[in-house]
């Protein structure tokens, strides 16, 4: 209806004096169309957590700063993080783009880097060890900037929960009991960690306890 009325007004103005009117009406019509259309990317950004957006924005700004400063080492590390994040984004729904996902990405990369350090040490490459340790330090900075429970905090919470369950079961604790009794959503919320992280930590600790028997 809006389009029809606008077009009728434009048709009525056929003389030179109406050129300005036609220009203004066309401009107004274009604004109406643009405001009514949103790209998929705009809809996706609405679903991404605030901390996720802030963290990824910081990474991009820091990479630009590193490029201007000609700090190739820092630039390469940040670029590596951004690439890993982008690959993960392709796997997940935008609603799952949270600080917890970033934390998992950083943790995975840190584990890879620590493995690389051990390999460089075994091959007698101190210069590569130092370079990798600087990268580890940088990734740790970004990881700690997220308001997410650290691995040590999660382990502490899991151990406390297991002790609580031990008392309920009179010490007869097994993996099935633990996984059945834990309220994963509540635990993740209270411990400020992702459900996947909580489950992985619980599984690891329970496995260690079982192997000691």
UniProtKB/TrEMBL annotation:
The keyword Oxidoreductase is annotated on this UniProt entry: no
Alphabetic keyword roster: Mitochondrion
Entry's transmembrane regions: none
A GO MF term: carbon-nitrogen ligase activity, with glutamine as amido-N-donor
Subcellular location per the Swiss-Prot or TrEMBL entry: Mitochondrion
GO cellular component labels: mitochondrion
Major subcellular site: mitochondrion
Coiled coil (residue ranges): none
InterPro entries xrefs: Asn/Gln_tRNA_amidoTrase-B-like (IPR003789), YqeY/Aim41 (IPR019004), YqeY/Aim41_N (IPR042184)
Recorded family membership: Belongs to the AIM41 family.
Listed name of the protein: Altered inheritance of mitochondria protein 41
